[in-house]
């Protein structure tokens, strides 16, 4: 015997629970189906276990999509303040970390408990763990064949998220079902993800694994570049940290990124000012301005590069510390003399110090790829929103089929934006069902 509902929601994550709770509280009979044994794993692991559940500044400009205006309506109808009201009603304490990012004081479990309680208040029927074997549509309803039997529902919501972190149950199920019903997909890719470099060329920098510093990272033509000023982390395989995760969502294979590794300093002025009569070695001086390990490795690399000549200096599949920056700039910026690290400040020609500062302020690198879905926080791309109604999240050509959350081609920056999209799109759908 099939179970009959007004709506079936596949995916009991952030967006799915929001939509199911809202629809249930409006009086609809809702089934919430998820194949995972544990509820909302992504909420649980988010924000280092404290869930960066929204961002006070969340607006359309913080999202990537091939249809950039699509998210406008849902974000305006359900704002971070609305979610804070919900948190307040459940007595959940929170704090702002930085740049409008809001985190739970205790644990992300409190957000999961809140959403579960909201679903229970709407008498949502939980079906989990329950795998969906097939989805079909007959004359008047959607038919789900599941491990818990057949479910029939007049409306179907795909809330199965994206492919990031398959270890906690992420799949491409939403994309497959959307394709089955004739919807287009914007090519999915890992986003908010570390970037990796050619292993051979990255080796000298891999030694810096664990070094973190603030950096400005940019991508795209200088006049229209996308820029983020955030922390950056060296890893064995490449670069990570918020600055890199942010820019990774904009990066495409074959494109360079540019780092300013001392964004808050005028390094040329600092080095020239430190020079007169100074008998300290350059690496000691640079270590007062920069992380010591980075200063030493950077200068050692510069020395090695100049003794090998410029071509040996390319690193990370691109243009590294001691090497030339790019074809145009290489002539303007002479390479440092061998043994630079050990030279006394007073003996180093101004030209060499200027060249060093220029390289640190503009390090152009060519990533060879990303660390993949296993390390990504989100998937970019997804169901093409040009076929989706922006107020209800319903597919225009497929009556009764709704898509919400990360499965859509709406990708937020790092910092609570992706959850805000999950809440807002879930709310829009829950009200429209
Ligand atoms: P979500 O992934 O939450 O839920 C999808 C649900 O569908 C899951 O429960 C899954 O089991 C289920 N499902 C998948 N395939 C299925 C199938 N075939 N059958 C049945 N069920 C299926 N964002 C943010 O704003 N702030 C933050 O702090 C973080 N931190 C963070 C850390 C880490 C490590 C990751 C991986 C991600 C984040 N994010 C984040 C991103 C955020 O978690 C993500 O964007 C939202 O959870 C997306 O919400 P959805 O409801 O769309 O998918």
TrEMBL record:
Keywords: FAD, Flavoprotein. Residues 302-331 are annotated as: Disordered. It comes from the Bacteria. Residues 6-431 form the RsdA/BaiN/AoA(So)-like Rossmann fold-like domain. Residues 314-325 have a biased composition (Gly residues). SUPFAM superfamilies: FAD/NAD(P)-binding domain, HI0933 insert domain-like. Pfam families: HI0933_like, HI0933_like_1st. Its cofactor is FAD. Residues 189-304 form the RsdA/BaiN/AoA(So)-like insert domain. InterPro entries: BaiN-like, BaiN-like_dom_sf, FAD/NAD-bd_sf, RsdA/BaiN/AoA(So)-like_dom, RsdA/BaiN/AoA(So)_Rossmann. This is NAD(P)/FAD-dependent oxidoreductase. It comes from Candidimonas humi.
């Amino acid at each position: 015997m099939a179970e009959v509902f007004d709506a079936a929601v596949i995916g009991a994550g952030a967006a799915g629970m929001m939509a199911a709770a809202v629809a249930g509280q409006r009086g609809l009979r809702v089934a919430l189906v998820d194949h995972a044994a544990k509820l909302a794993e992504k909420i649980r692991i988010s924000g280092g276990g404290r869930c960066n559940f929204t961002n006070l500044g969340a607006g359309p400009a913080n999202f990537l999509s091939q249809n950039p205006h699509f998210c406008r309506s849902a974000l305006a109808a359900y704002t971070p303040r609305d979610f804070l009201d919900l948190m307040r009603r459940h007595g959940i304490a929170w704090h702002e970390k930085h740049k409008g990012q809001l985190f739970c004081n205790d644990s992300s479990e409190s957000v999961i408990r809140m959403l579960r309680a909201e679903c229970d208040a709407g008498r949502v029927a939980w079906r989990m763990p329950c795998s969906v074997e097939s989805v079909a549509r007959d004359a008047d309803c959607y038919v789900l064949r599941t491990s818990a039997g057949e479910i029939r529902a007049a409306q179907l919501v795909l809330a199965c998220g994206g492919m990031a972190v398959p270890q906690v149950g992420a799949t491409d199920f939403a994309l497959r079902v959307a394709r089955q019903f004739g919807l287009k997909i914007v090519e999915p890719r890992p986003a908010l993800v570390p970037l990796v470099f050619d292993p051979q060329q990255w080796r000298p920098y891999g030694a810096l694994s664990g070094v973190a510093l603030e950096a400005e990272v940019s991508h795209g033509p200088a006049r229209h570049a996308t820029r983020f000023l955030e922390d950056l982390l060296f890893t064995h395989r490449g670069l990570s940290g918020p600055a890199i995760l942010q820019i990774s969502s904009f990066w495409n294979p074959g494109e360079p990124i540019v780092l300013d590794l001392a964004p808050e300093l005028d390094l040329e002025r600092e080095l020239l000012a430190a020079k007169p009569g100074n008998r300290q070695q350059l690496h000691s001086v640079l270590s007062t301005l920069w992380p010591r390990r980075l200063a030493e490795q950077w200068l050692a690399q510069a020395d090695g590069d100049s003794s090998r000549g410029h071509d040996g200096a390319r690193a990370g599949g691109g243009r590294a510390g001691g090497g030339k920056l790019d074809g145009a700039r290489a002539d303007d910026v002479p390479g440092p003399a061998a043994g630079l690290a050990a030279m006394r400040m007073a003996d180093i020609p101004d030209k060499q110090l200027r060249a060093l500062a220029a390289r640190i302020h503009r390090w152009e690198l060519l990533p060879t790829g990303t660390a993949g879905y296993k390390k990504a926080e989100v998937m970019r791309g997804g169901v093409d929103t040009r076929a989706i109604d922006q107020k209800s999240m319903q597919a225009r050509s497929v009556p009764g089929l709704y898509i919400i959350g990360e499965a859509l081609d709406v990708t937020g920056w790092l910092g609570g934006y992706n959850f805000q999209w999950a809440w807002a799109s879930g709310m829009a759908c829950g009200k429209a069902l």
